[in-house]
Amino acid sequence: MLKKANKELLPSELGTEPIGKLLWAYSLPTIIGTVVNALYNIVDRIFIGQGVGAMAISGLTLTFPMMMILGAFGMLIGQGSATQISIYLGRKDKKTAENILGNALVLTFIAMSIVISVSLFFLDDILIAFGGSDVTIPYAKDYLKIIIPGHIFTALSFGFNNSMRASGYPVKAMLTMLIGAVINTILDPIFIFIFDWGIEGAAYSTVISMCISAIWVMRHFTNPKSTLHFKRGCFKLNKKILLAIISIGMAPFFIQVSASLVNALMNHALKNTGGDLAIGAFGIINSYMTLIVMGIIGLNNGMQPIIGYNYGARQDDRVLRTLRYGIIIATIATTIGGLCAELFPRQLARLFTTDPELIEITVHGMRISFLLFMIVGGQIVTTNFFQAIGKAKISIFLSLTRQLLFLIPFILIFPPIWGLTGTWMALPCADFISMLVAVTMLYFQVRKLKRNDSPIPHV
Q1: Longest Cα pair distance anywhere in the chain, in angstroms?
Q2: Looking at the domain assignment, is residue 457 inside a domain?
Q3: Which residue in 47, 77, 80, 45 sits closest to 62, CA to CA?
């Protein structure tokens, strides 16, 4: 199955094979790939925490909002184009799919040139706005001054990895992530401990590994034997294609941007109620949480071509079965992840630091933050489901509910009342309410699909 999915032109099996087999073939490689991708930053944090110190973790945590904003633009283009590619391949319209691919490449270079330039110019002001102090900002600047210019490679690697998967190459897409992560894991200890480059060594390691991943992806799409590849004329910008990419990609874009805003507010709340070390504790908690969430995102990425193809082919029963399996798998994953956080928080914290004060703050925060984590998986899958079927507005709304409508008010209200404990409590409270909203929206959409009256968006 993996071999077939990796070689054929969006295999016809997407519309005929059992959903369980398809999810195994398409989601397992993407889960491995995205979890490995999460290890990029996690490995950096582990080596920096063990090799540079506790305060360096706080400085690196300060970079999270900036990294999320940079990643948001890659998701905007990468996931938006991949969804459109899946739908048009489902309609057997390969020419439009390749035009989407070419437009996405041009749009990536334009967007990243602007974002990188603006980020570097206003870097000091941005770090202050993200909750930095005189102690943590120097660490953050040393890291970001290298990472930001190199983010063009990240955008190419991650963005077009989605298109590679959507065009029928899930195993090759997984290898894209594995190659970079393995190189990063090898270079990190060399640059940090042997060369004694500190936090800058972690940044150089990440940029080099992402550059190699980007070359791997671009070689695939310049190969005429690939299902989809760059052709003369596909780079000519088309307004309808660009708007379609952006409209679909807005959901993951807003997830990232709103998450960046929430991270900045969390940094300020943590700094006010627990000091710089509390920010470092959030970095450790966020690292573990990201590892699990990225696994769910990998599941979503594997589901996306299956849902997109069958939605384009109007096989709504297969769409709903894929959704059901996805919610079950995601819920199991977040339940196990939440239990580990509740039972073994001290062991998880010690992976990143030996500082006893930082460990105690992390244990306290982790046990509160993961109280209702078991419900997060279904909410993430539901949001991605609406994106996969082209329902951009609903997907964007669900993306914003947890981050903007619920979590931000809780971050502003709880800390003045309950201090540091209140800051941590904002997370599970937002999880619960956003889950209720997602379930409600999903109920009405499933009813529409069962009646088969949902219009398919066109480019």
Answers
A1: 63
A2: no
A3: 45
Contact 177, 230 (CB under 8 A): no
3-state secondary structure of 338: helix
Amino acid (1-letter code) at residue 150: G
pLDDT above 50 (res 3): no
Give me the residue label for tokens 């899958």: 381
Residue 456, in any domain of the structure: no
Q: Which residue has the tokens 């369980």?
A: 20
Within a domain: 36: yes
Kindly tell me if the per-residue pLDDT of 336 is higher than 90.
yes
Bin 10: left if φ > 0, else alpha if -120 < ψ < 50, else beta. left
Q: Which residues does 265 contact at the CB level (< 8 Å), separation at least 6? A: 408, 411, 412
Work out how many domains the chain is built from and give that number: 1
Query: Alpha helices, DSSP H only, in 222-238?
Result: none
- Encode pLDDT of 141-184 as tens digits: 999 999 999 999 999 998 898 888 888 888 888 888 888 888 99
Using alpha carbons, select from 367, 332, 326 the residue that is nearest to residue 346. Answer: 367
* Angle, helix 94-121 to helix 64-90, in steps of 10 degrees: 170
**pTM score, whole prediction:** 0.82
CA gap 202, 176 in Å, rounded: 20
Whether the Cβ atoms of residue 321 and residue 19 lie closer than 8 Å to each other: yes
Question: Measured in Å, how far apart are the chain's first and last C-alpha atoms?
Answer: 31
Please write the tens of the pLDDT for every residue from 23-52. Answer: 888 888 778 877 877 777 788 889 999 888
Q: What are phi and psi of 322, to 5 degrees?
A: -60, -45
- pLDDT score of 2 more than 50: no
Domain boundaries, position 237 = 2-451
Which residues have a Cβ under 8 Å from the Cβ of 386 and sit 6 or more positions away?
251, 392, 394, 395, 398, 441, 445
The residue type of 154 is T
